[in-house]
Amino acid sequence: MARPTPVLRASDVRVSFAGRAVLRGVDLAVDPGHRTGLVGENGVGKSTLLRVLAGALAPDNGTVSRPADLGFLHQEFPYPPTTTVRAVVDDALVRVRGIERELEEAALALAGDPGGEPVPGAEEAYARALARAELADVWDADARAARTLAGLGLDVDGVAGREVGSLSGGQRTRLGLAALLVRQPGAMLLDEPTNHLDDAAAEFLAAALRALPGAVVLASHDRVFLDEVCTEILDLDPVAEPLRGAGDAARTAGAGTLYGGTYGDYLEAKRVERERWEQRFEAEQAELAELRRGVAVTARDVAKNRERGNQAKILYDFKGERVQGQVARRVRNAQQRLDALERDQVRKPPPPLRFAPPSGGTGVAPGGGDVVAWARGVVVHRPGRGEPGAAPGERPDRLDMAASGVPSVEVARGSRLLVTGANGAGKSTLLHVLAGDLVPDAGTVGRARGVRVGLLEQDVHLHDDDRTPRELLALAQGVDPADARDAAVDAHGLLAPCDLGRRLAELSVGQRRRVVLAMLVTQAPDVLLLDEPTNHVSLTLAGELMEAVAEWPGAVVVASHDRWLRRRWQGDAVHLD
């Protein structure tokens, strides 16, 4: 069976911004029915590649071919604010309506002219129109549109007549998704499509994308979504080491690497690559040590300490020149291999993220009991209506533990606790209460004597800070700020060395979050509070972070909506209603 022709293709795409290369020769070909997920470190160019594929950004070099009916989930909603929801849906159905009209016209032609004579070629035209109508499922179009809106969490009857300018940002995103799904373009480009979707809507979207006959390219931090939708993964991170063989599932795609299969298959392939990298590094280091010994000693150690009689001496003198030539050749060969291996050796694999153990090593200071931190019956009010800081229509409480179905939370020594709940349920508020930087209006909160608590917030508030990561990490290590410039700080692999001296204000949100995380790792608190720890970080770091949490001996409380994290959580969990 012939391979289908790719409907979306990019060849040697290169893009630079302000002299910095973002995409370095990316190749991509997506067949009908295939769904390619883009992954890689933040800033590696996932959104840039989607814009290039959509035609919204011209590459510096390379070519892109795309179908005429390409759909792109815009970050900015592509309709004027006065457009009604019904008009958006009608626009998505324009192609289906056109096919329906073609079928009706073909049927009239087949019925014949007023004299009853069939129009020449009418039968063939009707067959073609009928096939197109069946493929587009024109008879179910309106019902499909209604199901799509409802599946993505939009009240069909309640929003149909509203103007899109009156919708929330999340509602506009879901409406844009619905319009694309109703259109069913030949190729679809999606940038973080599960933002603003609850679990049910994300599952509906995954099922809808799997059913599409066209090609899909998407970028997402939702690992469950990637695993459920993708048929292949394009890793845009530069290939660190040439460790792949001809039989591997991965193949180079210019600057990136394409892995066949789901996101889970991709993770397994990366695990195998890491093992082979470590094995190759160890083997090369052992060979380097042997070669250095050989050049220095072994190659010259010919007939060492051997006793020779007169006859042996004569033979030795006779063969001495030949022996010296052999020695020189052995030394030369060993030196050439040493030079080549030193030049081409793989670099040492970076160590995975690991947390330093708490100072006490047990997650609680001497004298503490099994419970190291607690919150009981806590209520934290929002500003009342009309008071400074109040938002229109805002509910009165940021957190009411009893009303949320969780009257108390107790964090035991070395325990793991996951806090879940919808946006606004009070997850972040609970963590701030446990951290001690938010005083509740009612209830009790406390911690065991001597226990230190560290909090990773969702928003790190360093966007206008003129200090550098090196200075903050030096402070975390107890180094005087005046000596921070020359301090040998440990960034725990979370920051590139070139970023340690940059101003925090110049770093991305994800990079600033890495700085705070590195400070927490350095301080090694007894209780670690993580608020949405996988937000604004790469998928690789998200995985390493939770592996480090699993092995850390201290107590951990995590608040998260991350479905991948929640499905694999090993420990206790509470849900705030």
Quick synopsis:
The chain has 577 residues and is of the alpha/beta class. It contains 16 helices and 19 strands.
Secondary-structure map:
Layout: E1 8-17, E2 20-30, E3 35-39, H1 46-54, E4 61-65, E5 70-72, H2 85-92, H3 94-111, H4 122-136, H5 141-151, H6 156-159, H7 169-183, E6 187-191, H8 199-211, E7 215-219, H9 223-229, E8 232-235, E9 250-253, E10 256-260, H10 263-296, H11 310-344, E11 371-381, E12 397-400, E13 408-412, E14 416-421, H12 427-435, E15 442-447, E16 453-456, H13 469-476, H14 509-523, E17 527-531, H15 539-551, E18 555-559, H16 563-567, E19 572-576
Parallel strand pairs: 3-7, 3-8, 5-6, 6-7, 14-18, 14-19, 16-17, 17-18
Antiparallel strand pairs: 1-2, 1-4, 8-10, 9-10, 11-12, 11-13, 11-15
Largest β sheet strand count, sense and barrel closure = 7 strands, mixed
Q: Give the distance, in angstroms, between the N- and C-terminal Cα atoms.
A: 53 Å
Low-confidence stretches: 361-368, 384-390, 392-396
* Structure annotation, total helices: 16
Q: Indicate the mean pLDDT.
A: 83
Largest beta sheet: strand ordering: 5-6-7-3-8-10-9
Say how many strands there are: 19
Which outline best applies? flat
The portion of residues forming beta strands comes to 15-25%
Radius of gyration: 32 Å
Percent in helix: 25-40%
Structural class: alpha/beta
